[in-house]
Amino acid sequence: MDFGLSEELAALQQVARQFVDRHCPPQSAKEWDETNTYPAGLFKAMAEAGWLGLPFPPEAGGDGGGPLELAVIAEQLGRASLDMAMCYIGTLIPSLTVHKFGTPEQREAIRTGMLTGEKRYAVAMSEPDTGSDAAALRCAAVDKGDHYLINGQKMWCTGAGLPDTTIMMYVRTSKGERKHDGISLLLVDPDTPGVELRQTPTLARHILGTYEVFLTDVVVPKSALVGEQDQGWKIMLSNLELERVLMSGGYVGVAQATLDEMLEYSKQRTAFGRPVGTFQALAHAMADMQTEIDAARLLAYRAAWMLSQGLPASREGAMAKLKGSETYVAAARLGMQVCAGHGFSTESVMSFRWRESIVAPISGGTSQIQRNGIARSMGLRSY
Ligand SMILES: Cc1cc2nc3c(=O)[nH]c(=O)nc-3n(C[C@H](O)[C@H](O)[C@H](O)COP(=O)(O)OP(=O)(O)OC[C@H]3O[C@@H](n4cnc5c(N)ncnc54)[C@H](O)[C@@H]3O)c2cc1C
Q: How many A from CA of 359 to the centre of ligand 1?
Protein backbone atom coordinates (compact mmCIF):
# COMPACT_ATOMS: atom_id res chain seq x y z
CA MET A 1 0.00 0.00 0.00
CA ASP A 2 1.38 3.41 -0.97
CA PHE A 3 -0.26 6.71 -0.03
CA GLY A 4 2.38 9.00 -1.54
CA LEU A 5 2.53 10.68 -4.92
CA SER A 6 4.87 9.12 -7.47
CA GLU A 7 7.95 11.14 -8.43
CA GLU A 8 6.23 12.33 -11.61
CA LEU A 9 3.08 13.37 -9.77
CA ALA A 10 5.10 15.17 -7.09
CA ALA A 11 6.96 17.07 -9.83
CA LEU A 12 3.66 18.00 -11.49
CA GLN A 13 2.33 19.18 -8.13
CA GLN A 14 5.36 21.42 -7.73
CA VAL A 15 4.96 22.89 -11.21
CA ALA A 16 1.22 23.44 -10.66
CA ARG A 17 1.90 25.17 -7.37
CA GLN A 18 4.36 27.52 -9.05
CA PHE A 19 1.82 28.13 -11.82
CA VAL A 20 -0.75 29.30 -9.25
CA ASP A 21 1.79 31.51 -7.46
CA ARG A 22 2.75 33.11 -10.75
CA HIS A 23 -0.52 33.32 -12.70
CA CYS A 24 -3.41 33.29 -10.24
CA PRO A 25 -2.61 33.80 -6.55
CA PRO A 26 -5.68 33.94 -4.26
CA GLN A 27 -5.60 37.74 -4.02
CA SER A 28 -5.86 37.98 -7.83
CA ALA A 29 -8.68 35.42 -7.89
CA LYS A 30 -10.53 37.53 -5.33
CA GLU A 31 -10.07 40.71 -7.39
CA TRP A 32 -11.19 38.97 -10.58
CA ASP A 33 -14.25 37.71 -8.76
CA GLU A 34 -15.08 41.20 -7.53
CA THR A 35 -14.64 42.76 -10.95
CA ASN A 36 -16.28 39.98 -12.97
CA THR A 37 -13.03 39.47 -14.81
CA TYR A 38 -12.09 36.37 -16.74
CA PRO A 39 -8.31 36.33 -17.11
CA ALA A 40 -8.24 35.15 -20.72
CA GLY A 41 -4.45 34.77 -20.74
CA LEU A 42 -4.70 32.20 -17.98
CA PHE A 43 -6.42 29.65 -20.18
CA LYS A 44 -3.70 30.14 -22.79
CA ALA A 45 -1.11 29.63 -20.06
CA MET A 46 -2.81 26.35 -19.13
CA ALA A 47 -2.57 25.30 -22.78
CA GLU A 48 1.12 26.22 -22.85
CA ALA A 49 1.69 24.22 -19.67
CA GLY A 50 0.22 21.25 -21.58
CA TRP A 51 -2.69 20.87 -19.15
CA LEU A 52 -5.53 21.21 -21.64
CA GLY A 53 -4.27 18.36 -23.79
CA LEU A 54 -3.15 16.24 -20.87
CA PRO A 55 -5.99 13.68 -20.76
CA PHE A 56 -6.35 13.25 -24.53
CA PRO A 57 -4.64 10.43 -26.39
CA PRO A 58 -1.46 11.37 -28.31
CA GLU A 59 -3.17 10.88 -31.69
CA ALA A 60 -5.64 13.61 -30.66
CA GLY A 61 -2.82 15.99 -29.78
CA GLY A 62 -2.71 15.07 -26.10
CA ASP A 63 -0.36 13.49 -23.62
CA GLY A 64 -2.38 10.47 -22.54
CA GLY A 65 -2.48 11.62 -18.90
CA GLY A 66 -5.01 10.25 -16.46
CA PRO A 67 -7.25 11.11 -13.50
CA LEU A 68 -4.38 11.30 -10.99
CA GLU A 69 -2.51 13.96 -12.98
CA LEU A 70 -5.73 15.91 -13.47
CA ALA A 71 -6.58 15.70 -9.77
CA VAL A 72 -3.13 17.03 -8.85
CA ILE A 73 -3.63 20.04 -11.14
CA ALA A 74 -7.20 20.63 -9.92
CA GLU A 75 -6.02 20.55 -6.30
CA GLN A 76 -3.32 23.15 -6.92
CA LEU A 77 -5.66 25.41 -8.95
CA GLY A 78 -8.09 25.10 -6.05
CA ARG A 79 -5.50 26.81 -3.86
CA ALA A 80 -6.25 29.96 -5.87
CA SER A 81 -10.02 29.53 -5.70
CA LEU A 82 -12.72 27.04 -6.55
CA ASP A 83 -13.69 29.19 -9.52
CA MET A 84 -10.11 28.97 -10.77
CA ALA A 85 -10.22 25.17 -10.58
CA MET A 86 -13.55 25.29 -12.42
CA CYS A 87 -11.93 27.32 -15.25
CA TYR A 88 -9.97 24.14 -15.91
CA ILE A 89 -12.45 21.39 -15.02
CA GLY A 90 -15.46 23.17 -16.53
CA THR A 91 -14.09 23.05 -20.05
CA LEU A 92 -11.99 19.89 -19.79
CA ILE A 93 -14.90 17.59 -18.89
CA PRO A 94 -17.22 18.68 -21.75
CA SER A 95 -14.40 18.51 -24.26
CA LEU A 96 -13.54 14.98 -23.11
CA THR A 97 -17.20 14.08 -23.60
CA VAL A 98 -17.26 15.55 -27.10
CA HIS A 99 -14.02 13.77 -27.89
CA LYS A 100 -15.41 10.45 -26.70
CA PHE A 101 -18.67 10.57 -28.62
CA GLY A 102 -18.12 13.23 -31.30
CA THR A 103 -17.58 13.11 -35.02
CA PRO A 104 -14.08 13.48 -36.53
CA GLU A 105 -14.90 17.15 -37.24
CA GLN A 106 -15.96 17.77 -33.64
CA ARG A 107 -12.76 16.12 -32.41
CA GLU A 108 -10.67 18.18 -34.76
CA ALA A 109 -12.29 21.35 -33.38
CA ILE A 110 -11.08 20.29 -29.93
CA ARG A 111 -7.57 19.65 -31.16
CA THR A 112 -7.22 22.99 -32.94
CA GLY A 113 -9.38 25.08 -30.58
CA MET A 114 -9.56 23.86 -27.00
CA LEU A 115 -6.12 22.29 -26.80
CA THR A 116 -4.54 25.56 -27.91
CA GLY A 117 -6.46 27.55 -25.29
CA GLU A 118 -8.44 29.45 -27.91
CA LYS A 119 -11.85 27.88 -27.42
CA ARG A 120 -13.81 26.82 -24.35
CA TYR A 121 -16.82 24.65 -23.63
CA ALA A 122 -19.67 25.17 -21.20
CA VAL A 123 -22.35 22.69 -20.11
CA ALA A 124 -26.08 23.44 -20.17
CA MET A 125 -28.03 20.73 -18.42
CA SER A 126 -29.96 22.53 -15.66
CA GLU A 127 -33.13 24.48 -16.35
CA PRO A 128 -35.21 26.84 -14.19
CA ASP A 129 -37.42 23.90 -13.09
CA THR A 130 -34.86 21.09 -13.12
CA GLY A 131 -31.60 20.95 -11.21
CA SER A 132 -31.13 17.77 -9.17
CA ASP A 133 -33.84 16.11 -11.27
CA ALA A 134 -31.78 16.79 -14.38
CA ALA A 135 -33.41 14.13 -16.56
CA ALA A 136 -36.73 15.99 -16.31
CA LEU A 137 -35.34 18.66 -18.63
CA ARG A 138 -37.79 20.13 -21.13
CA CYS A 139 -35.82 22.38 -23.48
CA ALA A 140 -36.93 20.94 -26.83
CA ALA A 141 -34.99 20.36 -30.04
CA VAL A 142 -37.28 19.31 -32.89
CA ASP A 143 -35.73 17.27 -35.68
CA LYS A 144 -36.48 19.18 -38.89
CA GLY A 145 -34.67 16.88 -41.29
CA ASP A 146 -31.50 18.82 -41.99
CA HIS A 147 -31.48 20.82 -38.75
CA TYR A 148 -32.83 21.02 -35.19
CA LEU A 149 -35.14 23.79 -33.99
CA ILE A 150 -34.55 24.56 -30.31
CA ASN A 151 -36.96 26.32 -27.96
CA GLY A 152 -36.68 26.55 -24.20
CA GLN A 153 -34.50 27.84 -21.41
CA LYS A 154 -31.35 26.71 -19.65
CA MET A 155 -30.08 27.92 -16.30
CA TRP A 156 -26.76 28.02 -14.45
CA CYS A 157 -24.64 27.55 -17.54
CA THR A 158 -21.21 28.33 -16.11
CA GLY A 159 -18.92 30.24 -18.44
CA ALA A 160 -21.49 30.43 -21.29
CA GLY A 161 -20.93 34.17 -21.75
CA LEU A 162 -17.16 34.06 -22.15
CA PRO A 163 -15.71 34.70 -25.61
CA ASP A 164 -15.15 31.72 -27.92
CA THR A 165 -17.31 29.36 -25.90
CA THR A 166 -19.39 26.53 -27.32
CA ILE A 167 -22.30 25.38 -25.20
CA MET A 168 -22.68 21.64 -24.80
CA MET A 169 -26.44 21.56 -24.42
CA TYR A 170 -28.64 18.66 -23.32
CA VAL A 171 -32.05 18.92 -24.97
CA ARG A 172 -35.17 16.81 -25.33
CA THR A 173 -35.51 15.33 -28.80
CA SER A 174 -38.27 12.83 -28.00
CA LYS A 175 -40.48 11.54 -25.22
CA GLY A 176 -39.53 8.06 -24.13
CA GLU A 177 -40.96 5.71 -21.55
CA ARG A 178 -38.59 7.08 -18.93
CA LYS A 179 -37.59 10.71 -18.56
CA HIS A 180 -33.96 9.65 -19.17
CA ASP A 181 -34.87 8.55 -22.70
CA GLY A 182 -35.11 11.05 -25.52
CA ILE A 183 -32.35 13.40 -24.37
CA SER A 184 -29.72 14.44 -26.92
CA LEU A 185 -26.52 16.44 -26.82
CA LEU A 186 -26.06 19.38 -29.17
CA LEU A 187 -23.22 21.87 -29.59
CA VAL A 188 -24.67 25.36 -29.65
CA ASP A 189 -22.82 28.55 -30.52
CA PRO A 190 -24.16 31.32 -28.23
CA ASP A 191 -23.95 33.75 -31.16
CA THR A 192 -26.60 31.80 -33.10
CA PRO A 193 -29.71 33.92 -33.80
CA GLY A 194 -32.39 33.27 -31.18
CA VAL A 195 -29.93 32.61 -28.34
CA GLU A 196 -29.88 35.15 -25.52
CA LEU A 197 -27.78 35.06 -22.38
CA ARG A 198 -28.28 36.75 -19.04
CA GLN A 199 -25.67 36.50 -16.30
CA THR A 200 -27.34 35.44 -13.06
CA PRO A 201 -26.37 37.66 -10.13
CA THR A 202 -24.69 35.30 -7.64
CA LEU A 203 -22.76 35.33 -4.37
CA ALA A 204 -19.58 34.21 -6.14
CA ARG A 205 -18.51 32.31 -9.31
CA HIS A 206 -18.00 35.69 -10.96
CA ILE A 207 -14.77 34.82 -12.76
CA LEU A 208 -16.52 32.39 -15.06
CA GLY A 209 -20.01 33.77 -14.52
CA THR A 210 -23.08 31.61 -14.67
CA TYR A 211 -25.81 32.26 -17.21
CA GLU A 212 -29.42 31.77 -18.11
CA VAL A 213 -29.74 30.80 -21.75
CA PHE A 214 -32.97 31.69 -23.58
CA LEU A 215 -33.58 29.85 -26.84
CA THR A 216 -36.23 30.99 -29.32
CA ASP A 217 -36.52 29.18 -32.66
CA VAL A 218 -32.80 28.50 -32.68
CA VAL A 219 -31.63 26.62 -35.77
CA VAL A 220 -28.62 24.35 -35.36
CA PRO A 221 -27.32 22.04 -38.08
CA LYS A 222 -27.52 18.27 -37.74
CA SER A 223 -23.72 18.25 -37.54
CA ALA A 224 -24.09 19.76 -34.03
CA LEU A 225 -25.34 16.43 -32.66
CA VAL A 226 -22.81 14.66 -30.41
CA GLY A 227 -23.21 10.89 -30.34
CA GLU A 228 -26.52 9.28 -31.17
CA GLN A 229 -29.81 11.09 -31.01
CA ASP A 230 -31.80 10.32 -27.81
CA GLN A 231 -28.72 8.85 -26.09
CA GLY A 232 -27.74 12.02 -24.24
CA TRP A 233 -28.30 10.68 -20.73
CA LYS A 234 -25.76 7.89 -21.18
CA ILE A 235 -23.35 10.41 -22.69
CA MET A 236 -23.79 12.74 -19.72
CA LEU A 237 -23.12 9.95 -17.23
CA SER A 238 -19.96 8.84 -19.02
CA ASN A 239 -17.73 11.51 -17.45
CA LEU A 240 -19.63 12.16 -14.24
CA GLU A 241 -17.24 10.18 -12.06
CA LEU A 242 -14.20 11.98 -13.44
CA GLU A 243 -15.94 15.33 -12.99
CA ARG A 244 -16.67 14.58 -9.34
CA VAL A 245 -13.12 13.44 -8.74
CA LEU A 246 -11.64 16.60 -10.25
CA MET A 247 -14.05 18.83 -8.36
CA SER A 248 -13.02 17.00 -5.20
CA GLY A 249 -9.39 17.79 -5.99
CA GLY A 250 -10.37 21.47 -6.28
CA TYR A 251 -12.24 21.40 -2.95
CA VAL A 252 -9.30 19.82 -1.16
CA GLY A 253 -6.92 22.42 -2.59
CA VAL A 254 -9.07 25.37 -1.63
CA ALA A 255 -9.88 23.94 1.82
CA GLN A 256 -6.15 23.45 2.46
CA ALA A 257 -5.35 26.98 1.29
CA THR A 258 -8.11 28.29 3.55
CA LEU A 259 -6.62 26.46 6.53
CA ASP A 260 -3.09 27.58 5.68
CA GLU A 261 -4.28 31.19 5.54
CA MET A 262 -6.07 31.09 8.90
CA LEU A 263 -3.13 29.28 10.46
CA GLU A 264 -0.74 31.96 9.28
CA TYR A 265 -3.04 34.66 10.61
CA SER A 266 -3.43 32.88 13.95
CA LYS A 267 0.34 32.79 14.40
CA GLN A 268 0.69 36.53 13.75
CA ARG A 269 -2.34 37.92 15.49
CA THR A 270 -1.96 38.34 19.24
CA ALA A 271 -4.48 38.73 22.04
CA PHE A 272 -3.81 38.71 25.77
CA GLY A 273 -0.10 38.70 24.96
CA ARG A 274 0.00 35.52 22.86
CA PRO A 275 -0.73 34.40 19.29
CA VAL A 276 -4.45 33.58 19.01
CA GLY A 277 -3.57 30.23 17.41
CA THR A 278 -2.13 29.07 20.73
CA PHE A 279 -5.51 29.30 22.45
CA GLN A 280 -6.51 25.68 22.68
CA ALA A 281 -10.04 26.42 21.47
CA LEU A 282 -8.65 27.57 18.11
CA ALA A 283 -5.68 25.19 17.97
CA HIS A 284 -7.95 22.15 18.38
CA ALA A 285 -10.45 23.47 15.85
CA MET A 286 -7.63 23.87 13.30
CA ALA A 287 -6.18 20.45 14.19
CA ASP A 288 -9.63 18.93 13.56
CA MET A 289 -9.85 20.82 10.28
CA GLN A 290 -6.50 19.50 9.04
CA THR A 291 -7.72 16.00 9.89
CA GLU A 292 -10.92 16.59 7.90
CA ILE A 293 -8.95 17.93 4.93
CA ASP A 294 -6.59 14.94 4.98
CA ALA A 295 -9.61 12.63 5.01
CA ALA A 296 -11.12 14.52 2.07
CA ARG A 297 -7.81 14.34 0.19
CA LEU A 298 -7.53 10.59 0.73
CA LEU A 299 -11.07 10.11 -0.57
CA ALA A 300 -10.37 12.26 -3.62
CA TYR A 301 -7.16 10.43 -4.51
CA ARG A 302 -8.66 7.02 -3.82
CA ALA A 303 -11.41 7.79 -6.35
CA ALA A 304 -8.86 9.20 -8.84
CA TRP A 305 -6.69 6.13 -8.44
CA MET A 306 -9.66 3.80 -9.00
CA LEU A 307 -10.56 5.63 -12.21
CA SER A 308 -6.92 5.46 -13.31
CA GLN A 309 -7.13 1.66 -12.87
CA GLY A 310 -10.30 1.52 -14.97
CA LEU A 311 -12.37 0.60 -11.92
CA PRO A 312 -15.92 1.92 -11.44
CA ALA A 313 -15.85 4.66 -8.80
CA SER A 314 -19.36 5.99 -8.63
CA ARG A 315 -19.72 5.52 -4.87
CA GLU A 316 -16.14 6.65 -4.17
CA GLY A 317 -16.54 9.70 -6.42
CA ALA A 318 -19.76 10.67 -4.61
CA MET A 319 -18.03 10.25 -1.23
CA ALA A 320 -15.11 12.40 -2.35
CA LYS A 321 -17.46 15.10 -3.70
CA LEU A 322 -19.56 15.05 -0.53
CA LYS A 323 -16.63 15.18 1.87
CA GLY A 324 -14.52 17.65 -0.12
CA SER A 325 -17.30 20.18 -0.70
CA GLU A 326 -18.53 20.11 2.88
CA THR A 327 -14.97 20.36 4.17
CA TYR A 328 -14.44 23.55 2.17
CA VAL A 329 -17.58 25.05 3.69
CA ALA A 330 -16.43 24.06 7.19
CA ALA A 331 -12.89 25.37 6.61
CA ALA A 332 -14.17 28.73 5.36
CA ARG A 333 -16.58 29.03 8.29
CA LEU A 334 -13.76 28.29 10.74
CA GLY A 335 -11.49 30.72 8.92
CA MET A 336 -14.03 33.49 9.46
CA GLN A 337 -14.03 32.76 13.20
CA VAL A 338 -10.25 32.55 13.50
CA CYS A 339 -9.74 35.74 11.50
CA ALA A 340 -12.73 37.32 13.25
CA GLY A 341 -13.11 41.03 12.38
CA HIS A 342 -10.34 40.81 9.78
CA GLY A 343 -12.25 38.02 8.02
CA PHE A 344 -15.51 39.94 8.08
CA SER A 345 -13.89 42.76 6.12
CA THR A 346 -14.57 42.16 2.45
CA GLU A 347 -10.96 43.15 1.84
CA SER A 348 -9.85 39.80 3.29
CA VAL A 349 -9.28 36.73 1.14
CA MET A 350 -11.10 34.79 3.88
CA SER A 351 -14.33 36.64 3.17
CA PHE A 352 -13.99 35.56 -0.47
CA ARG A 353 -13.38 31.94 0.60
CA TRP A 354 -16.51 32.03 2.77
CA ARG A 355 -18.68 33.56 0.02
CA GLU A 356 -17.37 31.12 -2.57
CA SER A 357 -17.56 27.99 -0.43
CA ILE A 358 -21.36 28.08 -0.20
CA VAL A 359 -21.73 26.78 -3.73
CA ALA A 360 -19.50 23.71 -3.29
CA PRO A 361 -22.20 21.40 -1.86
CA ILE A 362 -24.74 22.71 -4.43
CA SER A 363 -23.24 22.79 -7.91
CA GLY A 364 -22.23 19.61 -9.70
CA GLY A 365 -24.84 17.67 -7.66
CA THR A 366 -25.90 18.64 -4.14
CA SER A 367 -24.71 16.86 -1.00
CA GLN A 368 -28.14 15.27 -0.68
CA ILE A 369 -27.83 13.81 -4.17
CA GLN A 370 -24.35 12.43 -3.34
CA ARG A 371 -25.77 10.85 -0.17
CA ASN A 372 -28.61 9.32 -2.20
CA GLY A 373 -26.04 7.70 -4.50
CA ILE A 374 -23.92 6.42 -1.62
CA ALA A 375 -27.02 5.06 0.15
CA ARG A 376 -28.11 3.33 -3.08
CA SER A 377 -24.70 1.67 -3.31
CA MET A 378 -25.41 0.31 0.19
CA GLY A 379 -28.67 -1.26 -0.98
CA LEU A 380 -30.84 1.54 0.41
CA ARG A 381 -33.27 3.19 -1.95
CA SER A 382 -33.05 6.81 -0.78
CA TYR A 383 -35.32 9.61 -2.04
C1 LIG B 1 -22.79 28.49 -9.27
C2 LIG B 1 -23.49 27.38 -9.96
C3 LIG B 1 -22.96 26.88 -11.14
C4 LIG B 1 -23.62 25.87 -11.84
N5 LIG B 1 -23.13 25.46 -13.05
C6 LIG B 1 -23.87 24.62 -13.81
C7 LIG B 1 -23.49 24.34 -15.16
O8 LIG B 1 -22.46 24.80 -15.64
N9 LIG B 1 -24.32 23.57 -15.92
C10 LIG B 1 -25.47 23.05 -15.42
O11 LIG B 1 -26.17 22.36 -16.15
N12 LIG B 1 -25.85 23.29 -14.14
C13 LIG B 1 -25.09 24.07 -13.34
N14 LIG B 1 -25.49 24.36 -12.04
C15 LIG B 1 -26.74 23.79 -11.55
C16 LIG B 1 -26.52 22.81 -10.43
O17 LIG B 1 -26.11 21.59 -10.97
C18 LIG B 1 -27.83 22.72 -9.64
O19 LIG B 1 -27.97 23.96 -8.95
C20 LIG B 1 -27.84 21.58 -8.67
O21 LIG B 1 -27.86 20.34 -9.35
C22 LIG B 1 -29.05 21.66 -7.74
O23 LIG B 1 -30.21 21.94 -8.44
P24 LIG B 1 -31.18 23.11 -7.95
O25 LIG B 1 -30.35 24.29 -7.61
O26 LIG B 1 -32.24 23.27 -8.98
O27 LIG B 1 -31.82 22.57 -6.61
P28 LIG B 1 -33.06 21.57 -6.50
O29 LIG B 1 -32.83 20.39 -7.35
O30 LIG B 1 -34.32 22.34 -6.70
O31 LIG B 1 -32.93 21.14 -4.98
C32 LIG B 1 -33.41 21.95 -3.89
C33 LIG B 1 -33.08 21.19 -2.61
O34 LIG B 1 -33.74 19.91 -2.62
C35 LIG B 1 -32.79 18.87 -2.43
N36 LIG B 1 -33.19 17.70 -3.20
C37 LIG B 1 -33.60 17.64 -4.49
N38 LIG B 1 -33.84 16.38 -4.85
C39 LIG B 1 -33.56 15.60 -3.79
C40 LIG B 1 -33.59 14.22 -3.52
N41 LIG B 1 -33.95 13.33 -4.45
N42 LIG B 1 -33.21 13.76 -2.29
C43 LIG B 1 -32.83 14.65 -1.32
N44 LIG B 1 -32.79 15.97 -1.51
C45 LIG B 1 -33.14 16.45 -2.72
C46 LIG B 1 -31.48 19.45 -2.94
O47 LIG B 1 -30.35 18.76 -2.41
C48 LIG B 1 -31.58 20.89 -2.46
O49 LIG B 1 -31.22 20.96 -1.11
C50 LIG B 1 -24.82 25.32 -11.32
C51 LIG B 1 -25.33 25.82 -10.11
C52 LIG B 1 -24.69 26.83 -9.44
C53 LIG B 1 -25.30 27.36 -8.17
A: 10
